[in-house]
Automatic annotation (TrEMBL):
NCBIfam families: shape_MreD
Primary location group: membrane
A Gene Ontology term for the protein's cellular component: plasma membrane
InterPro entries reported in the protein's UniProt record: Cell_shape_determining_MreD, MreD_proteobac
Keyword set includes Cell inner membrane: yes
GO biological process per UniProt: regulation of cell shape
Subcellular location: Cell inner membrane; Cell membrane
Pfam family, one: MreD
Protein name, per record: Rod shape-determining protein MreD
Protein's membrane topology: Multi-pass membrane protein
Functional note: Involved in formation of the rod shape of the cell. May also contribute to regulation of formation of penicillin-binding proteins.
The keyword Nucleus belongs to this UniProt entry's keyword annotation: no
Keywords: Cell inner membrane, Cell membrane, Cell shape, Membrane, Transmembrane, Transmembrane helix
Length: 161
């Protein structure tokens, strides 16, 4: 298999795995701790390979995630588009941050994502979520260094550009 084909399959595979991880059910007590996997994987690819990640891809992944998750159509698409737009805009700075600063930037992006989700749900007529609803961005930011290093190491082992 050629390197370009392997690279394409690796990219698609990581996005598919993130969508599957989003669907993994957790016990009710642990549900607030589940990170938003598609956002984390799209963040990684937006930082590492800007030519692959676009707003159209983020929108498509978001629509597919909406269909899988059974939420308001376009909710996750809007959130992922905003996240990718900000990441691509500040890519040149974020790439060279030390890992702890990258984790703080990811936290800010994930908190922005939660605020967008809150606005969409409030406009749709939902009630205010509990305080534990805000834990997920902190878990995602704490997992970011490990996810980044894992994906980067696997990409290097496969010699994918």
């Amino acid at each position: 298999m050629s390197r370009a084909r392997l690279s394409q399959w690796w990219f698609i595979g990581t996005l598919a795995a993130s969508l599957l991880l989003m669907l993994v059910p957790l016990p009710g007590v642990l549900e607030p701790f589940k990170p938003y996997w598609p956002a984390l994987v799209l963040l990684y690819w937006a930082l590492e390979s800007e030519d692959r990640v676009s707003l159209g891809l983020a929108f498509g992944v978001g629509l597919f995630a909406d269909l899988l998750d059974g939420v308001l159509l376009g909710e996750q698409a809007l959130r992922l588009c905003a996240l990718v737009f900000i990441t691509v805009h500040f890519r040149s700075r974020l790439r060279f941050f030390p890992m702890w600063q990258q984790a703080l930037a990811v936290l800010a992006l994930l908190l922005n994502d939660r605020i967008l989700l809150l606005l969409v749900r409030m406009l749709a007529g939902a009630s205010l979520p509990p305080a534990s609803w805000w834990i997920s961005p902190f878990v995602g930011a704490a997992l970011w260094p490990f996810l980044f290093l894992l994906l980067d190491d696997l990409r290097a082992r496969l010699r994918i550009q």
